[in-house]
Design brief:
The protein is mostly helical. It is 67% helix and 0% strand. The longest helix is centred in the N-terminal third of the chain and has 34 residues.
Length: 269
């Protein structure tokens, strides 16, 4: 599972980089057609085309330069052609995905449902990284994750369906209510609608009882990160950080701790 996770992590790097570019181009094209104007659009990008290449010199990346983690170490983190530095985030995402897949295998053993949970963590990794980069949680990730959670419940792989369904409902409405309360009080938006959908998806997979623990874990992680970024002057303009990565982190904490253990920690029955 860990080795599969390495390969999936390499693919997630492509998703994190290209999905925002592809959607941005599509939005510009749709807006131009709606307004009846012509705009200069960037090169079309999909998850499979064009072939991977160095953004600095255009060097086409050969297959042996794209082996997860190994190629980065062999190349010493630099393009083989122009020697431009390659971001260490690429191998870090690959390693993180490998560890998460191995963790899923440890958590669920050899059950086929482990592969469903592996898909769950893979989507969380992609969504968290994209949200961190762009402050957007795309429906292309959150909605399939939500529906997959409900389908997995219906098939008897995860939770009883009522728990999954109400987990999705409460997950969405809880942040939706906070959003509107904050907006009515301040006139400002405190979070994006993608956060509602992501928590709904987490509720569909982990159940209604885990909504509060996920939110608490996410808030604690977010607070620690925000304080650290403030002291290192890493906060963005407006002094904010996206909430999606911390929701994903809260969901992963509940998953690997196990909902049963979390319920015990909180003294719930």
């Amino acid at each position: 599972m860990g080795l599969v996770g390495l390969c999936i992590g390499s693919f997630l790097n492509v998703v994190v980089h290209r999905l925002p570019l592809a959607l941005d181009r599509q939005w510009k094209q749709d807006a131009a057609e709606l307004l009846g104007v012509e705009v200069d659009l960037p090169e079309p990008v999909t998850l499979s085309t064009p072939a991977s290449r160095c953004p600095s010199c255009g060097h086409a990346i050969r297959w042996y330069e794209n082996v997860p983690v190994v190629s980065y170490l062999v190349l010493r983190g630099r393009c083989s052609s122009c020697k431009t530095r390659i971001s260490p985030r690429y191998p870090l995402i690959e390693i993180a995905t490998a560890l998460l897949f191995a963790g899923v295998s440890w958590r669920f053993g050899e059950q086929p449902v482990a592969w469903a949970w592996a898909g769950f963590v893979a989507v969380l990794v992609a969504a968290a990284c994209i949200d961190w980069d762009t402050t957007f949680l795309f429906d292309h990730l959150t909605l399939p994750l939500l529906w997959a959670g409900l389908v997995a419940s219906t098939l008897g792989w995860t939770l009883p369906l009522p728990q999954a369904l109400w987990g999705a409902v409460v997950g969405y409405l809880s942040l939706w209510s906070i959003y509107w309360a904050y907006k009515l009080l301040t006139g400002k938006e405190g979070m994006g609608h993608g956060d509602f959908k992501l928590l709904a998806a987490l509720g569909a997979w982990l159940g209604i009882k885990m909504i509060l623990p996920i939110a608490l874990f996410a808030s604690l992680i977010g607070l620690v990160v925000a304080i650290g970024m403030k002291f290192t002057s890493g906060l963005r303009e407006g002094q904010y950080v996206p909430f999606g990565p911390f929701l994903a982190g809260g969901g992963l904490m509940v998953l690997f701790a196990s909902p049963e253990r979390v319920i015990g920690w909180l003294g719930w029955r």
